[in-house]
């Protein structure tokens, strides 16, 4: 006897893609899923499989496509509760519950299809009847782990899945089969047209991280690798892995002033659009203040800017800027400046990359500050991932013509100063700040050690930050060893007077 089911009507060839209901996942799949195919969505409990399935069905419902949720593991009340938690309504959705004590009893020896795959059991008849009655365009089958238990052995289970696949294909349905990976069954991968795997990774501190990977997808191109996603009220938000080469654009690399004449002189003219500048130095030396001065200059030119604060509180940030005569609130009120306070323990790296993309592509931001890379590193699994992520981010921002400033805090105040990570080779320009001691007083020094777009000054200057703003003095020509923190004086260069004394 043939092991295949005869189709009651010809299977139409799919001619279009269908959305998954998740914008980021559609982007990863370059347009969505091929219609009228069976897909496997696998993941351990808590990864969001049920949420993804509901989003898939609700998206179809919004486009006039009927949807059916077949549940072997959850009751209709539990599914309704999931929908309510996301502020969704399931009105118009068909929920078919098979999770009853009789069907799941091991004594019943019931399977979806019997070994001959010809005589159908009562459960299968119910599924077929409801599918033929409703004629859904989209189906979610939850979950395969219960089917595996009912099948009793791997051979019967595989034959059940094949028969189920043919049954749905004969009715031109697009189907998601959900599986909790309890048996790590690789046979499912060969049967399904595509496989999407969801993962949840617990952190030693902070929020758990979730990521997805498309293991296979027949006939369509997709973006490989892991993609971060968050499961929150409103459903799953997925952030496609950023590939900078896909986002090239034309722009004029014009040079703009920083708002501080001394800094412009050190840089060789100012900041160039499409470049990134790294400001490195120990805590308290004025890295953020220098970045704020550059942002304020961009805002005064009418540009839009976005400031990402990882370390400092908003209250302290605003208060310090006001004390130095750099008011920012009015630009925030005008919608020209966006200030985001970010908790690195709650942030997925992919989510941050998407925030930057939205700022540039949706809000028209052309100046970005990341303060600081030290805290951003804590959101990463390790230094290697920070380097790779920052390479793609900076390349993307450069191709969009965005001027970027990054703040990197260094350990130590005077003498041996070290960094958690060295990203100077990724920067187009690097500004180095140091404390040094002279005549019993602590002073600041500034120098530009790199600028790819201009002939920068190679001299070291004194930096002063006070109520009058930022001031840069003459070159410290009479000093040796300023960057070590303990210089020797061999000349007549006058040091700057502190107006507070």
Index terms:
alpha/beta, 501 residues, Rossmann fold, 25 strands, 10-stranded mixed sheet, 9-stranded mixed sheet, 2 domains, 30% helix, disordered N terminus
Please explain how this structure is put together.
- With 501 residues, the chain is of the alpha/beta class.
- The protein folds into two domains: 17-241, P-loop containing nucleotide triphosphate hydrolases (Rossmann fold), CATH 3.40.50.300; 246-489, P-loop containing nucleotide triphosphate hydrolases (Rossmann fold, 3-Layer(aba) Sandwich).
- 30% of the residues lie in helices and 27% in strands.
- The chain has helices at residues 23-28, 49-62, 76-85, 101-104, 122-134, 144-151, 154-170, 187-191, 261-267, 287-300, 314-323, 329-333, 349-361, 373-378, 383-399, and strands at 17-18, 33-34, 38-43, 67-71, 94-97, 138-142, 174-179, 194-201, 209-217, 227-232, 235-239, 255-256, 271-272, 276-282, 305-309, 337-341, 367-371, 403-411, 418-419, 429-438, 441-451, 461-466, 469-475, 479-480, 488-489.
- The strands form five sheets. Strands 14, 15, 16, 17, 18, 19, 20, 21, 22 and 23 form a ten-stranded mixed sheet that branches. Strands 5-4-6-7-3-8-9-10-11 form a nine-stranded mixed sheet, with helices on both faces. The chain has a two-stranded antiparallel sheet with strand order 1-2.
- Strand 18 (403-411) and strand 19 (418-419) form a beta hairpin.
